[in-house]
C-alpha cells in the first residue's frame, strides 16, 4: 500500500511557485499496476521521487507498506571507483540480502564477464545499464518504480530483461512513468493523470489514457 496524506509539492522560482501536487489524498492498493501520465514538466519524476523517498514533499506525509525499489535500471547511484561486484555487494548489505547470492545472480544476468571485477568508471553506458537492470531484478520488492523503462543490449538480452521484469510483477505493484501509451497499456491496469498540480486516479487504464489525451489536446 502507498498512501498520500494531504501531500503538496512545489518549487519556488524567482517569479512564481511551480505546483507539482496540491493537497493530494490518495491510496494505492498493494499489487496495483499504475501508469503515471502527464505532459512534459508536469512533475511525474518528482512524484516517483517522493514515493522513493529521495524527494521530500513540502507538506503532508506518504505512508508506504512494503519495500519500494529504486527506479528500475537506474545507474546513477553506482560508486564509479568500486568494481561492479563491490557495488552489488554494497547494495546487498543495504537491502539485507545475501551478497554472494545477489552477486551470482547479477553476474549471470548482466553478462559482463570479467568486467564485473573492474571499476564501474571503466564501463560503457550500456554496461552500466546491464549492471543496473540485473541488480534491479536481483532484489525482490513489493513495489517497482519505473521512470521510462529501458532494456539495453541485443535482442536476446532485451527479451530476457523484460521477461524477468514481468515475472517480478506477478507478486508486486508497479508505478510506471512512460510517454509511450502502448507501454503503459502493456504493463498497467489503472492510471494516475497529473495535470496542473492535480492528480486524478482512474481504475481503468484506458480511461486514464483518454483523459491524458484530452489534456494534451486542450
- How many beta strands in the DSSP annotation? 9
Helix count from the secondary structure assignment:
7
CATH topology of the largest domain: Rossmann fold
The poorly predicted ranges are: none
Radius of gyration, in Å, reads: 18 Å
SSE sequence, one letter per element: EEEHEEHHHEHEHEEH
Q: What is the SS-derived class?
A: alpha/beta
Which characteristics define this entry?
six-stranded mixed beta sheet, single chain, alpha/beta, 7 helices, globular, 218 residues, 2 domains
Helices, strands, pairings?
Elements: E1 2-12, E2 17-28, E3 33-38, H1 44-52, E4 59-64, E5 68-71, H2 84-95, H3 99-110, H4 125-138, E6 143-147, H5 155-168, E7 173-177, H6 181-187, E8 190-195, E9 198-202, H7 205-217
Parallel strand pairs: 3-7, 3-8, 5-6, 6-7
Antiparallel strand pairs: 1-2, 1-4, 8-9
Helix pairs in contact: 2-3, 3-4
Explained architecture:
- There is one protein chain.
- α2 packs across α3 and α3 (99-110) crosses α4 (125-138).
- It is globular, with a radius of gyration of 18 Å.
- It folds into 2 domains: 2-67 and 191-217, 3-Layer(aba) Sandwich (Rossmann fold); 75-173, Rossmann fold (3-Layer(aba) Sandwich).
- It is built from 7 helices and 9 strands.
- A 6-stranded mixed β-sheet has the order 5-6-7-3-8-9, sandwiched between helices. The chain has a 3-stranded antiparallel β-sheet with strand order 2-1-4.
- The two termini are 33 Å apart.
- The model has no long low-confidence stretch (mean pLDDT 92).
- It is 37% helix and 28% strand.
- By secondary structure, the protein is α/β, with parallel strands linked by helices.
